[in-house]
Design goal:
The structure is a single chain. The chain is α+β, with helices and mostly antiparallel strands and about 850 residues long. Among the domains are: about 10-25 and about 90-195, Calcium-transporting ATPase, cytoplasmic transduction domain A (Distorted Sandwich); about 255-275 and about 650-720 and about 725-870, Calcium-transporting ATPase, transmembrane domain (Up-down Bundle); about 300-510, Calcium-transporting ATPase, cytoplasmic domain N (3-Layer(aba) Sandwich), CATH 3.40.1110.10. Helices cover about 50% and strands about 20% of the residues. It contains 33 helices and 28 strands. The strands form four sheets. Strands 10, 11, 12, 13, 16, 17, 18, 19, 20, 21 and 22 form an eleven-stranded mixed sheet that branches. A hairpin with a 4-residue loop joins strand 16 and strand 17 (about 410-420). Helix 8 (about 205-235) packs antiparallel against helix 9, helix 13 packs antiparallel against helix 14 and helix 26 runs parallel beside helix 29 (about 735-760). It is elongated. About 50% of the residues are buried.
Length: about 850
């Protein structure tokens, strides 16, 4: 141990060279250019690039340009999101102060915190942030807020040789510490290393599209080979068949899908922002929709992070107190009826207010805040509820001396004057841990008198304290002692005191949380609590909110289990207490091994590794540390657990809309492939040109697809169970991916054959197919508004879809009847009779899909009703 004069400058330099600067070593981050290039490491993008390259080789410059614009747009949007997300580690550095006061060469000096070395002796005062891990040497009333590391909601009072940690804040007192560890060797450094080593995994949506891309690639290659072989065997020129195969590939690939999905996600981000959920990573939006478990921190997430006295014991009765947070409003009741406060109650409340370093203040916006320790603040608020305001009591009972709280005595004493100066008396007000207070109590204040405190009465009071603790309450006892002029030392004052009563306080749950958890249950989402708090406190909150399931596990019990044992019981546990950061990460990994999609909430540095490892990390915007926010996928700007539920609802809506877009785009693409495939197999000319296919895929289909991305959330979205992570995105879309394409293909081929055989004009035949696809697919867009129930009842409520349908139809008319465009697209004007056929067939298609959805929905409802009746 260093002496209090500190290190010499020479020794400090030697140790700085040995241990390195007191800073977190950052793992080398990916350069911006590499992040940008990584956006193109996607199967769908590879397929599009291949199509673009072939188009370029064949001299189809317009096709090449259109595809490259789509690819570039996708890359830019992805780069912006990921570049922002690469800031987790930088936030850790912000938690370290710039300068600190250190004894060097026998003098107190202000030095750069990076120059701190093990052995340095540092002066810390209330409000200072601890610059490195250290040992507490000496001081008075020294307490640190360690919630960011431990999850504990109550400041930790320090005694000699206790450890203090880098990044935590001294909330009261003054002390001297000796530095033990610096930089990456500190607790926060260890967490920093964990954050950097934790690799982010692909979202369910990314996995879906990876499978989709592979399926398309295999399907397209197989089709191209079949078509090329069939044509070659039929005697077609190999080059012609190669061009035809490329046309087929262009028809099969939904060129607009990556860009449209990005837009759907961006719209979801905007919607969530309006509901106080800020999304930092675009692809994580949809992940919320299939979340099966929310693993939440307690302090500040489920609870208000504000201690509040809920009951107190005095004069042989328990008085309950209503009210939330620090607002000085509440009702005192006993057995459900309004309680009249007696002398004993008033005395307990007065001691709580005066033997206290905290103050209650009202901010400009009308919110009440505590300046000082939250536990002491709860007592000031309790007094204010009984109209005992600290500022007024201090005038009536001026403070003349203080014996600060310390971890050895577990008590605090203040001495006050009572009465006018000549006849003034002195009285000591004392508060502390009940067992500590009962040891020094000789009398008890009961029925307005001081009575002897019997041993049996002490045992009864200790039992009451244990009952309060079992209910999750933190307890504080109160007493007083009238003083003569000789009694000035703490030893003389804190003995033979008069016991008054006990207060029970708790960091209460947020009012809206219970309803939100019930909503999660109805949506098939399990909520579990993971906290660093005491098991009894955690169990009490868990029981109140209905998430404990009678099963609680401590970090100590968890440490004794291997991963296999943990996997067996992880689904049954509702509350985890006294859990370390590494253990929290183990719980998340176990849940993921069990197939869960896990959302993790938190606000402290201790939450950062688990936030980053989770399928979706949710940080608190107000109380959260920068580290937790930068490690998270989503930040709640109002710190409200209910906002998570709103975000889940939005996430499910986003997935629904992506599914609608996929069903709509692929229904058209399947028709395009089928029309080309069967035309070739029947020995017919190509019914569509490559440029026409690209125009359909990117413009006339792309714009309505974007309009589908702003569809409002369906009303029953939170009554469904979460979708399975491996569930394909095309599940339950057979009407769109099989039946509608078959019908539309038959219509297109029928018209094509009719025009070729009876009119004999290939260009007119191709124009009919080109236009039929555009008109038919526009009506399919309206069908796609609801995939499993009729859309006809809300046909025109999506104004964007109506607008894009009108625009694309008008654009098609312009192409058909404006000669310069007609030449580019190689089409001819259509006659009135042609339009009659096109529109009639399109309406038949629309009607068929609506009837099939209605029938399917009816069967599902009947099945549900039968299961209810059984």
């Amino acid at each position: 141990m260093s002496n209090q004069s500190g290190l010499s400058s020479e020794e400090a330099k030697r140790r700085l060279a040995q241990y390195g600067p007191n800073a977190l070593v950052e793992k080398k981050r990916k350069p911006a250019w590499l992040i940008f290039l990584s956006q193109f490491n996607d199967v769908m993008i590879f397929v599009l690039l291949a199509a673009a390259l072939i188009s370029f080789v064949l001299g189809e410059s317009s096709d090449f340009a259109l595809i490259m614009i789509v690819i570039l747009l996708h890359g830019i949007l992805g780069f912006i999101q990921e570049y922002k997300a690469e800031e987790s580690f930088a936030a850790l550095k912000k938690m370290i102060v710039n300068t600190t006061r250190v004894w060097r060469d026998g003098e107190l000096k202000l030095i750069d915190v990076r120059e701190i070395v093990p052995g340095d002796v540092v002066l810390i005062e209330a409000g200072d942030r601890i610059p490195a891990d250290a040992i507490f040497l000496e001081g008075s009333s020294f307490a640190c807020d360690e919630a960011m590391l431990s999850g504990e909601s109550v400041p930790v009072h320090k005694k000699k040789d206790d450890k203090v940690f880098m990044g935590t804040v001294c909330v009261s007192g003054k002390g001297i510490i000796e530095i033990e560890k610096t930089g990456m060797n500190t607790e926060i450094g260890r967490i920093a290393a964990m954050v950097q080593e934790t690799e982010e995994e692909k979202t369910p949506l990314e996995l879906d599209f990876e499978k989709l891309g592979k399926s398309i690639t295999i399907g397209v290659l197989a089709l191209c080979l079949v078509i090329f072989a069939a044509g070659w065997l039929h005697g077609f020129e190999p080059l012609d068949m190669f061009i035809t195969s490329v046309s087929l590939a262009v028809a099969a690939i939904p060129e607009g899908l990556p860009a449209v999905v990005t837009i759907v996600l961006a719209v979801g981000v905007q919607r969530m922002a309006k509901r106080k959920a800020i999304i930092r990573k675009l692809k994580a939006v949809e992940t919320l929709g299939c979340t099966t478990v929310i693993a939440t921190d307690k302090t500040g997430t489920l609870t208000r992070n504000e201690m509040v006295v809920k009951k107190f014991f005095a004069n042989d009765r328990i008085v309950e107190v209503s009210g939330v947070g620090y607002e000085p409003r509440g009702v005192f009741t006993q057995d459900g009826k309004n309680a009249v406060l007696g002398k004993e109650d008033d005395l307990l409340l007065r001691i709580g207010v005066l033997c206290n370093n905290a103050y209650l203040k009202e901010s400009e916006n009308g919110e009440w805040q505590i300046i000082g320790d939250s536990t002491e603040g709860a007592l000031v608020v309790l007094g204010a509820k009984a109209d005992m305001w600290k500022e007024e009591l201090m005038k009536e009972y001026p403070e003349i001396a203080v014996f600060p709280f310390d971890a050895t005595r577990k008590r605090m004493t203040t001495i006050h004057k009572i009465g006018k100066e000549k006849n003034a008396k002195r009285i000591a007000y004392i508060k502390g841990a009940p067992e500590s207070m009962l040891k020094i109590s000789k009398l008890i204040f009961k029925d307005g008198k001081e009575k002897a405190l019997q041993s049996s009465e002490k045992q009864r009071l200790l039992k009451l304290t244990e009952e309060f603790a079992a209910q999750g309450y933190r307890t504080i006892a109160f007493g007083y002692k009238e003083l003569d002029h000789a009694e000035l030392s703490v030893e003389a004052v804190e003995k033979d005191i008069v016991f008054v009563g006990i207060a029970a306080m708790i960091d209460a749950p947020r009012e809206e949380v219970k309803a939100s958890i019930e909503k999660c249950k109805s949506a098939g989402i399990k909520v579990i609590m993971i906290t660093g708090d005491h098991p009894l406190t955690a169990k009490n909150i868990g029981d109140q909110l209905g998430i404990s399931n009678g099963k609680i596990m401590t970090g100590e019990e968890l440490e004794k289990m291997n991963d296999e044992e943990l996997d067996k019981i992880v689904d049954a546990v509702g509350v985890y207490a006294r859990v370390s950061p590494a253990q929290k990460l183990r719980i998340v990994n176990s849940l993921k091994r069990k197939g869960h999609v896990v959302a993790v909430t938190g606000d402290g540095v201790n939450d950062a590794p688990a936030l980053k490892k989770a399928d979706i990390g949710v940080a608190m915007g107000i109380t959260g540390t920068d580290v937790s926010k930068e490690s998270a996928d989503m930040v709640l700007s109002d710190d409200n657990f209910a906002t998570i539920v709103a975000a889940v609802e939005e996430g499910r809506g986003v997935y629904d809309n992506i599914k609608k877009v996929v069903a709509y785009l692929f229904s058209g693409n399947i028709v395009e492939v089928a029309v080309i495939f069967f035309s070739i197999m029947l020995g017919l000319p190509l019914p569509l040109l490559a440029f026409q296919i690209l125009f359909i895929n990117l413009i006339t289909d792309g714009l309505p697809a974007i309009a589908l991305s702003v569809e409002p959330i369906e009303k029953d979205v939170m009554k469904r169970k979460p979708r399975k992570q491996n569930e394909p995105i095309w599940k339950d879309t057979e009407v769109f991916l099989i039946e509608a394409p078959i019908l539309l293909t038959l219509f297109c081929l029928g018209m094509f054959v009719y025009e070729l055989n009876y009119v004999g004009d290939l260009v007119r035949a191709q124009t009919m197919v080109f236009t039929m696809l555009i008109v038919g697919e526009k009506l399919l867009a309206f069908n796609s508004r609801f995939l499993n129930k009729p859309s006809v009842y809300e046909l025109f409520s999506n104004k964007w879809l109506v607008a894009t349908a009108i625009f694309t139809f008008a654009l098609q008319l312009l192409i058909l009847y404006y000669e310069p465009l007609a030449k580019i697209f190689k089409v001819v004007p259509l006659r009135a009779f042609d339009w009659l056929i096109l529109l009639s067939l399109s309406l038949v298609l629309f009607g068929y899909v609506e009837i099939r959805k209605w029938w399917k929905n009816k069967k599902q409802q009947d099945k549900k009703q039968q299961s209810i009746n059984i």
